[in-house]
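Handout, page 2. Input:
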Amino acid sequence: MFLFWVSIWIFVALVGTFPVIIEKAADIVGIGRGVDLVIYTAVFALFYFLFKIYVRVSKVEKDISQIVRKIAIDKAEKVNK
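Output:
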């Protein structure tokens, strides 16, 4: 995770220092301005990470339900014995 964030901040520093890089990338993709490319990429990344968080929360909720169900069954079996 550390390397991911370091690489992100190195990229941000490079783009901030040399904005021509993002302009050329925008021209290659067919977007008018480099700022628009950055905004589109940021929105896409936010939706992607939001989806990943949703999937993870759903899995955690399912796991918690299974654990609670097992604990309830175990307690019910102890009471009935």
